[in-house]
Amino acid sequence: MVDYGPTWDAARLGELERCDYTCQGCGREHDPETLDDENGVKIHVHHKVKARLFPRIEDAHYPENLIALCSRCHGRVESGKLPDSRPDVRDDVNMY
């Protein structure tokens, strides 16, 4: 697991709260306590511009660079295969 620095937990929680623990890729709702949906799928927070591209990793955690995605959609985004049902999200998540 990557160490995203001391500000990551707060930035991650802020994004999850902003989206009400809902995947922005498929719309799955997740429990705020367990971070699971009804099928046990976890919710993650993805950096649109990869954190490794920033001089300081903490600089990557600004709200406009974060998006909440379930583990399934997160995997699809990382492989470039987010479903066409959300072109607004698909076009936005992989800026670089």
UniProtKB/TrEMBL annotation:
CDD domains: HNHc. Keywords: Endonuclease, Hydrolase, Nuclease, Plasmid. It holds the Pfam family HNH. The keyword Hydrolase applies. Residues 23-77 form the HNH domain. It comes from the Archaea. One of its GO terms (molecular function) is nucleic acid binding. The keyword Cell cycle does not apply. This is HNH endonuclease.
